[in-house]
Amino acid sequence: MKTTQYIAEIVQELHQTVHLINDSEAEKLVQQILASKKIFVAGAGRSGLMGKAFVMRMMHMGIDAYVVGETVTANLEKDDLLILGSGSGETRTLVAIAEKAKSLGGTIAAITISPESTIGQLADIIVKLPGVTKDQSEGDYRTIQPMGSLFEQAMLLLYDAIILRFMEEKNLDSNKMYGKHANLE
Fold first, then answer.
1. What residue ranges in 20-91 does DSSP mark as E strands?
2. DSSP, res 139
3. pLDDT tens digit string along 111-166?
4. Annotated catalytic residue: which of 70, 77, 138, 152?
5. Which listed residue, 13, 24, 82, 105, has the most CB atoms within 10 A of its CB?
6. Whether 151 contacts 132, CB under 8 Å
7. Burial of 104 (C-beta count, 10 Å sphere; 0-12/13-18/19+)
8. Annotated catalytic residue 70
9. Torsion angle of alpha carbons 77, 57, 41, 75, nearest 10°?
C-alpha cells in the first residue's frame, strides 16, 4: 500500500472514532478547565507528547497550565485540575501522580480507553476515547495502526477541539492568541 493510502486509512479510522466520544463528558472537562485556577497535564510516552501540545495551546489562551514533571511546573493546590492521558489507565507513574493530586484536594480528569481502570476510579471526570491499548488486548475498536496510535491521535484531536470550545467561550481568535505565542525564537 502507498503511504498516502495509509494516510487515508488513518483519517478514516479517526473519522469513525469521533462519533464514539461522549460530548457531555468532553463538555464536563471544558467547564472544569474554565473553573479551575491551574491546570496540570500528564501522560507517558506519546500520550504525554499530546498533553504537552495541549498545555502549549492553553498557555496561548492565557490559561495557567503546566506539564507535570517539567522544572517550571507550579505546585498543585486544592481545586486545581489534573488531566491524565492514559489508554490503559494503569500506568504506574500516572497512578501515583493521581493519588498525590487527590490527597492535595485536586480534581482528576482521565482521558482513557479504560474508565474502569485505577486512574478511571480515581477520576472525577472521565472522557472515554475509542481505541486499543498498546498491546491491543483492551479496547472497543480495531485499527491498522500499531500500539496506541489511534488513541493518541484521538486524544490530540479532542484536546484541539477543547481549545476551540475555549475560544468560543472566551471570544478568542487566532490573532488574539498569537500575542501569547513565544516571540524569542
1. 39-43, 65-67, 81-85
2. B
3. 999 999 999 999 999 999 987 656 555 556 677 666 788 889 999 999 999 999 98
4. 152
5. 82
6. yes
7. middle
8. no
9. -30
